[in-house]
Specification:
The chain is of the alpha/beta class and 311 residues long. It has two domains: 80 residues, Arc Repressor Mutant, subunit A, CATH 1.10.10; 220 residues, D-Maltodextrin-Binding Protein, domain 2, CATH 3.40.190. The chain is built from ten helices and 13 strands. It starts with a helix and ends in an 8-residue tail after the last strand.
Length: 311
C-alpha cells in the first residue's frame, strides 16, 4: 500500500478539508484528490463524502482511519530502526555476567541518554559477520588468534585486560590460599565445560595450558554458571577459572573462594570491534568512553598469549 496515499488520507481526515490537507502536505489540492481517489480504488470503498463544509469520513473511512494511523507509525519505527543517530546502538557482549557487560553498564550510567540494544552472539566469526552486515555496531572479543586475522574493514582497540581468578569450593586443597601461582596449579583439575573448540576463548586456554602445563577439562554438558558453581562447591577435586570482572552470586552455604592467580598473572584480553565505515554517533561516544575508563596496561608480571600482546 502506498504510504503517501495513506498519509494524505490521514491528513485529510484530521483537517476535514482537502485544501487544508494539501497545505499541510505541501502539495496541490488536485494531488490530494488524486491520492484519495487512488486509495479508494485500492480499497474498493468510498472514504469521504463531500459536504459544504469540506469532506467527512464515511463509515468505511472511519473504520480505516485507526489502521491508517498504525500503518504510518509502523513505517516511522521501521525507518528509525535503521536510521543512524535515531536507532539504538547495538553491541554484542558475549555473556550477561562477563566483563563486557560491566563495561556496557558503566557506559550506560555515564550516557543514559543513549539507547542501547545489547545482544549475545556466540563466537568471533559470528560477531564479525554481524558487524560487516550491519546487524550489530560493535562487539567485545579477544583478537589476534593465529590464522584468524580480522578483515581489513574491521577496526579493533584493546579495552580491558581481565585478570583470571581461581574459583574453588571450601574443601579444595587450595581453598585457604590468599593467592596461587600458575606453577602451583600444575596437577590440579580445572573444570571449564564452557570451552568450545575453535572459539577465541578456547585458543586462549589452549595457549595457557601449553605455557604452564595445566590440566583444563572441558568435558560434560555446559548447564550454565549456576550448575558450574554447584559442582565446584560440592567437588573438592575440581576448581575453575573465572574472570576477575565476572559477576557471580551463589548461596552462602556454598563457601566458594575466589583466589588471585599470580606468577605471572594471566589476563584475558578484551577488545572492542567495529566496522570502520559505521557512522553511528553513539559508537564514537562508546569508543571515547572506553578510552577514558580503561585501566592503563602494565605488561610487567602478567601473561597473555603471544597473539594477544599488542606490538
Amino acid at each position: 500500500m502506498d504510504l503517501d496515499t495513506v498519509r494524505t488520507f490521514v491528513a485529510a481526515a484530521d483537517a476535514g478539508q482537502f485544501q487544508e490537507a494539501a497545505a499541510e502536505l505541501a502539495v496541490t489540492q488536485q494531488a490530494v484528490s488524486k491520492r484519495i481517489a487512488a486509495l479508494e480504488r485500492k480499497l474498493g470503498v468510498r472514504l469521504f463524502t463531500r459536504t459544504p463544509r469540506g469532506a467527512e469520513l464515511t463509515i468505511d473511512g472511519q473504520a480505516f482511519l485507526p489502521h491508517a494511523r498504525e500503518l504510518l507509525r509502523v513505517a516511522e519505527r521501521a525507518v528509525a530502526s535503521v536510521r543512524t543517530g535515531t536507532r539504538a546502538l547495538r553491541v554484542d557482549i558475549i555473556a550477561s555476567r562477563g566483563a563486557a557487560s560491566g563495561l556496557m553498564r558503566g557506559f550506560h550510567r555515564a550516557h543514559p541518554e543513549i539507547e542501547l540494544d545489547v545482544v549475545m552472539l556466540f563466537d568471533i566469526e559470528t560477531a564479525v559477520a554481524a558487524i560487516r552486515s550491519g546487524t550489530i555496531d560493535a562487539s567485545f572479543r579477544a583478537v589476534g588468534v593465529p590464522g584468524r586475522p580480522l578483515p581489513e574493514d574491521i577496526e579493533s582497540v584493546r579495552v580491558l585486560d581481565e585478570p583470571l581468578q581461581l574459583l574453588t569450593g571450601p574443601a579444595h586443597a587450595l581453598a585457604g590460599a590468599r593467592s596461587v601461582t600458575l606453577a602451583q596449579l600444575a596437577g590440579h583439575r580445572i573444570w571449564m565445560p564452557g570451552i568450545v573448540p575453535g572459539t577465541e576463548w578456547a585458543a586462549y586456554y589452549d595457549d595457557l595450558v601449553a605455557a604452564f602445563g595445566l590440566t583444563i577439562e572441558a568435558t560434560g554438558p555446559n548447564f550454565g554458571s549456576d550448575a558450574l558453581l554447584d559442582t565446584i562447591a560440592d567437588t573438592p577435586a575440581l576448581a575453575t577459572f573465572m574472570g576477575g570482572h565476572t559477576r557471580l552470586v551463589w548461596p552462602a552455604d556454598h563457601g566458594l573462594r575466589r583466589i588471585p592467580v599470580t606468577g605471572p598473572m594471566p589476563v584475558y584480553p578484551h577488545s572492542l570491534l567495529w566496522h570502520r565505515d559505521n557512522p553511528h554517533p553513539a559508537l564514537a561516544t562508546l569508543r571515547a568512553h572506553l578510552a577514558t575508563t580503561a585501566a592503563g596496561r602494565d605488561t610487567d608480571g602478567i601473561w597473555a598469549p603471544p597473539w594477544a600482546i599488542p606490538h
